[in-house]
Structures are given as structure tokens and as C-alpha cells.
Amino acid sequence: MGQWVNQPVVAQIAPVPRPVLAADVGGTHARVALVVSQVHPRKPVRVLAEGRYTGADWSSLTAILQHFLAANVQMAPLGIERCAIAIAGYVLGDAVANSNLPWPVSLSDIRAGTGAQTLDVINDFEAVAYASQFVDREQTTTLLPGAGDHAHGPIVVMGPGTGLGSAVLLPGAANAQVLATEAGQIALAPGDEREVAILRVLARTRPYVSVESIVSGPGLLATYGAIAELDGHAAALATPDAVSAAGISGSDPSARSALEVFCAVLGGFTADLAMLYGATGGVFLAGGILPNLCDFLLTSRFRERFFNKGVMRPFLERVPVRVVEHGQLGVVGAATMHAGARVGAAH
Fold first, then answer.
1. Residue 90 belongs to a domain with what CATH number?
2. In terms of Cα–Cα distance, which of 287, 332, 240 is closest to 38?
3. Helices assigned H by DSSP within 142-214
4. Tens-place pLDDT, residues 219-230
5. Which helix (H) or strand (E) holds 144?
6. What is the predicted pLDDT for the residue at 148?
7. From the centroid of its chain, how far is CA 148?
8. Residue 84 and residue 118: Cα distance in Å, rounded?
9. Cα 116 from chain centroid?
């Protein structure tokens, strides 16, 4: 009779997935998070930790990412394997080309500094557009309700911040497709004589006046300066935030006029993009500026200029327009976009 030998039992332990380090990097702020995937139709990732950084306070994007990882080491004790970054601009060799960032971005420096084996870099509004399919409509502010069934049409996502970003979500395939655009660089089309005069003032200091020249933080400040000059007043305010606050309160007439022009041009341009892309799925307005302007937008000329498109008004009346907090959208989009939708992926 053979001898029975007690064999040790080796437990089969499933490998613990490492979280993804995801970031949404704008000209002013960088939002960073550690996320893990989950099976949920409306929430494809779960956020373990998140932080928001003012870019100018740091020497580099790598320094921000390293600080965040060190502050949340308990959430990723084994480190990370993948880093996904949504950022305005485009990949050019080892760098990201973007004149609005406070520092240059080196992809090799990020890999070395974070230990990421894979680094994906995508357009920031492309990431926001991809994440828009997971937005809870109840957590948005409706500017225009639209009409009809919006479930399956293209969705435009745009928003002013340091620049004017824009992208389009194209549903219908197994995985939604996203088209990154530079729509903010389209030439400015004035809607009335006042805007023609502002265009003339802006054109004196730049060879080309785009929509972004008005519909952005720097654009709002430039518009304020132009209006003050046209009205014979001194431009007392020096930052976009100050112009926005004074415009809302009405304490500075030129700031109030600048904010009205900002909203009017935004309304007309939003309609242009809705028509261009057949956005029956609606428009999401994001970015760093608009959430603080919701009440002002509702009573501004945004609606008037949005519908002032001649024979296209019946179409535009069916397009819902909502303001959404930028918040985690860029982070979620960067972390969840499938390989086929990436732009400028760097491995």
C-alpha cells in the first residue's frame, strides 16, 4: 500500500488590477485621479482618489503626478501600469504642443516619473466627449430643452477655458467614436455692428481673429478691453475672473457688455456646430468658465443667437443644450476610451 503524502494546497489568488493614473490637463488646472474599471453601463470606472492642481504652482506635469501618487500611495501600493492623460494640444515626438500650458510636457519624463509602462495621450475635449455618454442628465443645467428622441444622435461637446475646446461623439457603433476638432480656431463671424467694431479692435493686435478670441478666458478679457476702448473708459480689470464677476454683478458696465457679447457669440457658434455635425443628440457645454455663468447664460442673448439661423431654426429647436460640470469628465474619458478612439497614443 502506497504512502500518502500530504501536499500543500496553493491558494489561487486572482491578480489585483492596478489602478489607472488619469489626468485632465488644462491651461490653468490639472485634475488627477486613480481609477479602476467596473462593470456598470453608466459608470465604467470607479474613482479611488482625486485631486485638483493649479498648474502654475508646479514645475511640471510630472511633478504634479508624482505628488498625487505619493499622497495616495495606499490606493496603489504596487504602483501603476497605465497613465492616461487628456490634454489640449497634440503629440509631437516626445512633447505635447500647446502654447497655453505653464510648462513643457515630456512624455518620456512622465513615464520615468510615474513608472507607467503605457502612456496614452488624447485630446482633452475628445476625452470629455467620450465621457459625455455616461453623464447623468439630472446633474446638468438645461439651457435649451430641445424636443424629440435624443438618444442616438451625434453629441457636440464644447467649452471655453484657457482656450475653446470642441469634440463630437458619434454613436451607433459597438464603441462610440469621437472626433476631436479645432473648431475654436474658426474665424469669428460678428453678429451685429457692435461685434464688428470689437473685431476691428481685436484685429489690430493679431493677424487672425478666431471664435476663441472672444469665447475663452483670455478672449473675455480681450473683449472687455476692446469694449472699454470703444466706450472711452479705462479698462480697470486685469483677469477673466474679475471681468466675469463684475459682469455678473453689474458693477462695471464694460464688463457687463463683454459678458453679454461672450454669451451671444457662444450661442451663435454653438448653433453653428450643432448644424455642422447634425447634433440631434444635443450639445454639452463644459470647460472651466460656464458652470459659474449658468444663471447669466439663461437670461443672456445666448438663446436668441442660437436660434437666429434662418431656415434652420426648426432643426435647432430639437437640439437640447446643457451645461455640465467639467469635473471628472476628462479624467473618466481618458481612462475609459478604447484603443480605437485614441489620438496620439504614446506607448
1. 3.30.420.40
2. 332
3. 193-203
4. 999 999 999 999
5. strand 141-144
6. 61
7. 27
8. 8
9. 24
